[in-house]
Design a protein that fits this description.
This protein is mainly β and about 110 residues long. Helix content is about 0%, strand content about 40%.
């Protein structure tokens, strides 16, 4: 869901699939908009500003705008995340990746 594709306002929603084979899928990044995750399936770890939170099906997480965050899969299956961003369309979300693009697990702000 994004205003450039659907009749929405102030909300962008999608599904991300994070492969255990590619830990950089959701490498550490930040964006101005607040974001929420709902885990559909799989297991993983969410890193927000250096603090790690376990992810599993049914778990929700809130990421305040501007915070450095990333996620990785820790199980054998992909981690499937329903994400919601406070933006009219996905094109309004500008990602900032730190110079060090380490995977989310074990990574700390600044590399």
């Amino acid at each position: 869901m994004s205003s450039d594709r659907t009749p929405t306002d102030s909300l962008t929603l999608g599904v991300a699939s994070v492969s255990p084979a590619d830990p950089a899928d959701l490498r550490l990044h930040r964006h101005e908009q607040a974001e929420a995750y709902y885990i559909l399936s799989g297991q993983g770890v969410l890193n927000i500003e250096g603090v790690e939170y376990p992810l599993a099906a049914g778990v929700t997480a809130f990421i305040p705008g501007g915070r450095l965050h990333g996620a990785c899969a820790t199980g054998a299956a992909p981690l499937r995340i329903l994400y919601v961003l406070c933006a009219d369309s996905f094109s309004q979300v500008h990602y900032d990746f730190p110079e060090e693009t380490s995977p989310a697990r074990g990574a700390r702000p600044g590399g």
